[in-house]
Amino acid sequence: MTPILSPELPGAPSELRARITAAFHRDETQHLAELLDQARLPAAEQARVQAAAVALVERTRVRSADPGMVEAFMRQYDLSSEEGVLLMCVAEALLRIPDHATADKLIRDKLGDADWDRHMGQSSSVLVNASTWGLMLTGRMVNLADETRRNAIGAFRRLVGRAGEPAIRLAVRQAMRIMGHQFVMGRTIAEALERSRKGGQAKYLYSFDMLGEAAFTQADADRYFAAYRDAIGAIGAGGPYPDVLDAPSISVKLSALHPRYELAKRARVHAELIPRVLALAKLAKAQGIGFTIDAEESERLELSLDVIAGVYTHPALAGWEGYGLAVQAYQKRAPFVIDYLADLARKTGRRMPMRLVKGAYWDSEVKKAQAEGYAGYPVFTRKANTDVSYLACARRMLAASDAIYPMFATHNAQTIAAIHHFASAVPSPLPLSRGRERGASGSVPLSRGREGDASVRFEFQKLHGMGDDLYAEVIPAERLGVPCRVYAPVGSHEDLLPYLVRRLLENGANSSFVNRIADESLPPADLVADPVAVVSAYESKPHPRIPQPKDLFRSFGEDRNNSMGANLANDDSLAALASQINAALKDWQATPLVPGAVAAGAANAVTNPADRRERIGQWVAADSASVEKALANAVAAQEGWDRLPAASRARILEHAADLMEARMPEFLALCVKEAGKSLSASVAEVREAVDFLRYYAMQARRLFGAPEKLPGPTGESNELWLHGRGVFVCISPWNFPLAIYVGQVAAALAAGNSVLAKPAEQTTLTAFVATRLLHEAGVPRDVLQFLPGDGATVGAALTRDARVAGVCFTGSTETAWAINRALAARNAPIAALIAETGGQNALIADSSALPEQLVRDAMASAFDSAGQRCSAARVLFVQADIADKVIHMLAGAMDELVVGDPALLSTDVGPVIDEDARRLLADHAARMDREARLIKAVSLPAATANGSFFAPRAYELSSLSQLTREVFGPVLHVLRFEADKLDQVLADINATGYGLTLGIHSRIDSTVEKISRTVKVGNCYVNRNQIGAVVGVQPFGGEGLSGTGPKAGGPHYLLRFASERTLTINTTAAGGNASLLTLDD
Fold first, then answer.
1. What does pLDDT average to over the chain?
2. Would you say 548 and 636 are in contact if contact means Cβ atoms under 8 Å apart?
3. Could you check whether the bond before residue 1046 is cis, i.e. omega within 30 degrees of 0?
4. Most Cβ neighbours (<10 Å): which of 17, 161, 408, 578?
């Protein structure tokens, strides 16, 4: 069998690179023990550092009596202020919403009820007051009457009522432009350069950052490349610069230069991005300016190091010491990154500039680790822990100053004082190259500053618009005498807000130095507390309110573990996983599992849907005799299983969960080879199955473990007991061959039923291995029996049998109808039917939606798992005002999709399940080609010729009525709607009769509420994709034509598998009511 994952893995890394990889999820307590030792100073030296920091604060506070506009804004609107966050939301949306109606709705929605009176008049800064009122129509502040000052919120509401939303809209836009001027150095690089040379700005060095988010399409990447190229030329035109470290520099985001900047696309990124970065670096070298690569999310770190090293070691950059990067102290890998890069610099023979930052993506890093079930966090969970890491990394950089030119980005007085002290103890290093001894262009002289000063050379850095008062006490020779470089954003106001929100999160937080320095009630000594002492005093080094990913659900009071995933962005994890998966590959054999029956059917070969030439195993179908024997076994075994205490059944399911988690590699192999699932989807599949087992075990204990006590008159006890219904038939689909199969079976078993499990014919092998695992975990073989086969032979025989007490089914609506008719036709006890069927799932976006996020989520919802998810988006309704932009972005993003073998990590879209499915999709595409407008059809590579592949497509329709049934595959249909026709859109969706999932993209709460309350669907998702429901978090299931309920993975699901029995006892029958007679007065 062809290998899984391993063909794209890199070779063995160097020892220093291996240390980086190994530290991805390093234990926080262990790591901090080392960092504390590295950051700690002797008591006398620490006292000098603290005294210097206090002096910095005191002098800065004198200057800060009249704070700059940006700092005043940050202090006023910190993260304890709902209004600060609302203001960012309103401004961010207003600057990109094209139509006035939606903009006005946003103003009413966000500003009407906010507590603005807490902020009006509290600051004399024009920025705070202008932003609060949004009344800068002419650039001047409107005078406020006394009554207005006393009741600002009432005045605001009156103003909205009197002036109307259009006036407020214009006012807020103008206010945000003024604020943008404070936060952004210039709208163009020319404007930024001119501003950097004027007045007080001239005392700083500069690193210019071209604002913008990651490239989403190749066109985006090309545009950013051109912007960087032009900026380098413009910056260089201000030269010549004899010393590259005194020259201005440019900051570059690698994710802006490539539309698929992710580890899964490693080979493509290496081939395409390294030449691009090299071209820019060569241009920067020629211009004599610095070139710094910005830090990004943790999952991109090692890919960034590949690109950085690939460019840095190129002979064309020989002798140039302007090429550097940023390192994030909040990542646990930071010390090892410094070691690796210092070694690289020494081997290359020139020093590397290195900017140390705290890190800007902390909240998203924590969320991702929890959601993905990682072994730990890539970042520290306390701010003070990051502060310790920063100090330890700073000392590491200074100690390696022969190879590193240290640059420290901070607005914290304690950090500045500590680093200044660290540096004073480090002598200036010997040069790495002879060029530096001669003072050649681009070289680094031994020291900068006063005569006779031979200490190590370094600089501080700050954000534009912040920290001016603090650094006025740092830069002058009579103070600390250390230069400061300003990180200066350049770009339009539309690009400002994502950057600004990150700055607000970092520096507006109540714990930040920028926020706290303005609090005069806070003593300077407290403000500059030594983080080493703070962290040393913590009883728990990790934050006690941030649970480890494994303990996520326990932190909410649930007695279950979060399922563990696999970090597909870590080479150690990938190498181990590849080895284990490939060791598990074999010729799988599946037969009916029915005690007392002998399989006598013909063997059915199983081939890989990605390449039908590859055989992966075979299965034998159950015959009618096996079905009859299984029914008899199930009836006989059910009562004993039901009598088993619920806690015992739960322990068996939890044991099965542990076994499945430990054997993830084999189930990944099956998901990839039999179901054609991508590796990421396969990991999610196994995790969902594990979660089902643990969740239903927990629910069994809660619901079935003891009777529910009911009220009644004195002298009487009343109890409600839950029991299994009897024999349950579980019929599962091929699109979730493990998760839904295991979920159905586990629920029925947890409730005390015996189970006859019939998997989909296409994925019999996966279900067989899962069944054997459940038997191994302790489920009796006659309680759970496995009956593979087609619907006519096995499914029909089971659903018409009078001994069946219930059917749990996931599949098409048509099959659910047939099962319902078969159950109803029996002259037998009425059976329970739990059905989860298809959906015409819609995604609705108004013009307040962020187009990039909308397209990203629409792509995942429509094309992940080749569109073969029950929850997949089939129809995208997009407001006409942004439709052209969204459709254009969608087409560009689809160009980046990789269709191919799901055994490769680089594949985005794998095959559909079989040729029947492919033919149905091809027929639909032929009809759409005639009746709709093709937006994009992805090209199929030649390597897909032997598989069941269907190229992802997007069509623009004129009416939802053009879709007469669910299209189960990678096809997205787009419809435009006018803002005033939203009600009709909602009516059209409801008229389909389906009600499974719905996506909403809007920043307007009233719109979200209206849509979610109007459309009748089981699962509604707002401002995210609409796939990947998590057990116990987003219970899954629809209504109408989409299912019967209750929701799988929800608190009510097991009840549908149960019968209820009450027990009433007259406790006075033995001679009186003792409890009543003995009551005290």
1. 90
2. no
3. yes
4. 408
* Residue from 92, 688, 870, 956 carrying the catalytic annotation: 870
Distance of CA 393 to the CA centre of its chain: 27
Q: Which amino acid is at 670?
A: L
Residue 142 has pLDDT above 60, yes or no: no
Question: Which member of 92, 836, 896, 966 is catalytic?
Answer: 836
Q: How many helices (H) and strands (E) does the chain have?
A: 38, 28
Structure-token match 């960034």, residue found = 304
836 is catalytic: yes
3-state secondary structure of 399: helix
Q: What is the mean pLDDT of residues 1057-1068?
A: 95
Residues 649-657 have a mean pLDDT of: 98
Collapsed DSSP state (helix, strand, coil) of residue 889: helix
Q: Round to whole Å and give the CA distance between 254 and 212.
A: 12
Amino acid occupying residue 710: L
DSSP 300-368: GHHHHHHHHHHHHT-GGGTT---EEEEEETTBTTHHHHHHHHHHHHHHHTS-EEEEEE--S-HHHHHHH
What tokens were used for 707?
A: 């009777």
Length of the chain equals: 1081
For residue 440, the 8-state DSSP code is -
Residue 61 phi, psi dihedral angles, 5° rounding? -65, -35
Overall average pLDDT of the 298-313 stretch: 98
Q: In what order do the strands lie in the sheet with 611-620?
A: 588-590, 611-620, 603-608
| Mean pLDDT value of segment 711-724 | 95
Please give the average per-residue pLDDT across 170-176, as a whole number. 60
Q: What is the side-by-side strand order in the sheet with 971-977?
A: 933-937, 953-956, 971-977, 875-879, 842-845, 997-1001, 1019-1022
Q: Are 695 and 648 in contact (CB under 8 A)?
A: no
Taking alpha carbons only, the member of 655, 903, 941, 939 closest to residue 774 is 655
Residues 6+ apart with CB under 8 A from 322: 244, 245, 247, 249, 284, 285, 288, 289, 290, 291, 353, 442
Relative orientation angle of helices 15-22 and 334-348, to the nearest 10 degrees: 160
Burial (CB < 10 A; 0-12, 13-18, 19+), residue 393, is buried
Q: How far is residue 844's CA from residue 709's CA, in Å, rounded to a whole number? A: 46
